[in-house]
């Protein structure tokens, strides 16, 4: 969502608790700006930074833009469960984990939504799937240069504590709110801790696809399996 009144852009990454936040931000967005929102008839709920810059121009980069991030293993499970009517099945989950594009899903990395360039259908420049910036092996001087050239970096709000962090951001933007409003969630999925669902190769696939997320945001796989 974009607000010219408050000069902010909210990049809504799927399954990060952004639906409720969009409700709270709607009143600050004029009718034209709702083109990139869930409220316009043909709005784009999950518009990328590239979409915004292409439509509005680079001058909007002076706005405050932010996004919510979530542990990639937790987010991936929630994404799959949401689109599978809250049910878990191994075959469908593996298709989602290993071949998201072939099954109509976005890449697993948060950074897909923050890219300056479009690499096509989730493929790296050398033809491998996903994004070249997400592989830990490329997180070196060359990788750093690539990241700086090709990624927009917003204000990151963590899903795990976003009510407090969003409150700080709202204070900066002078948006009245209450912590109770920020704690309300909609569109959530119910399931056990994510570590109960992953097999070894599925866990490794998310780690590889989200290598940049893990290194920049500090997420790790926490094992809380229910015996």
Give me the secondary-structure topology.
Blueprint: E1 2-3, E2 8-11, H1 18-25, H2 49-56, E3 64-69, H3 72-83, H4 90-98, H5 141-150, E4 155-158, H6 162-173, H7 179-183, H8 200-209, H9 211-217
Parallel strand pairs: 2-3, 3-4
Antiparallel strand pairs: 1-2
Number of H- or I-type helical stretches: 9
CATH class: Alpha Beta
Strands of the biggest beta sheet: in what spatial order?
Answer: 1-2-3-4
Q: Which secondary-structure class do the elements indicate?
A: alpha/beta
Distance between the termini: 42 Å
Rg from alpha-carbon coordinates:
18 Å
The CATH level-2 architecture is identified as 3-Layer(aba) Sandwich
Order of helices and strands: EEHHEHHHEHHHH
**Average pLDDT reading:** 83
The global form is globular
Tell me about the biggest sheet? 4 strands, mixed
Number of domains: 1
Count of distinct strands:
4
**What share of residues are in beta strands?**
5-15%
Low-confidence stretches: 132-137
Helix percent band: 25-40%
What are the salient characteristics of this protein?
alpha/beta, 227 residues, 9 helices, globular, 4 strands, Rossmann fold, four-stranded mixed beta sheet, single chain
Description of the structure:
The N and C termini lie far apart (42 Å). The chain has helices at 18-25, 49-56, 72-83, 90-98, 141-150, 162-173, 179-183, 200-209, 211-217, and strands at 2-3, 8-11, 64-69, 155-158. The chain has a single domain (2-217), classed as 3-Layer(aba) Sandwich (Rossmann fold), CATH 3.40.50. It is an alpha/beta fold. It has a four-stranded mixed sheet, covered by helices on one side. It contains nine helices and four strands. Helices cover 36% and strands 7% of the residues. Mean pLDDT is 83; it is low at 132-137.
């Amino acid at each position: 969502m974009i607000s010219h009144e408050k000069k902010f852009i909210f990049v809504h990454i799927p399954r990060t608790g952004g639906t409720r936040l969009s409700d709270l931000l709607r009143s600050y967005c004029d009718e034209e700006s709702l083109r990139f929102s869930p409220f316009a008839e043909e709005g784009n709920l999950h518009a990328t930074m590239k979409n915004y810059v292409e439509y509005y121009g680079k001058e909007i980069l002076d706005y405050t833009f932010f996004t919510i991030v979530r542990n990639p293993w937790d987010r991936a499970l929630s994404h799959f469960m949401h689109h599978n009517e809250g049910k878990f099945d191994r075959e469908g989950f593996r298709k989602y984990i290993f071949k998201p594009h072939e099954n109509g899903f976005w890449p697993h990395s948060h950074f897909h939504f923050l890219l300056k360039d479009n690499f096509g259908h989730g493929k790296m420049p050398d033809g491998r799937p996903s994004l070249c910036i997400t592989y830990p092996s490329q997180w070196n001087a060359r990788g750093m240069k690539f990241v700086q050239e090709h990624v927009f970096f917003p204000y990151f709000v963590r899903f795990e504590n976003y009510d407090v962090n969003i409150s700080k951001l709202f204070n900066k933007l002078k948006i009245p709110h209450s912590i109770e409003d920020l704690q309300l969630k909609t569109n959530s999925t119910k399931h056990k801790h994510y570590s109960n669902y992953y097999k070894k190769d599925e866990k490794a696939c998310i780690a590889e696809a989200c290598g940049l997320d893990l290194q920049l945001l500090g997420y790790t796989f926490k094992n809380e399996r229910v015996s």
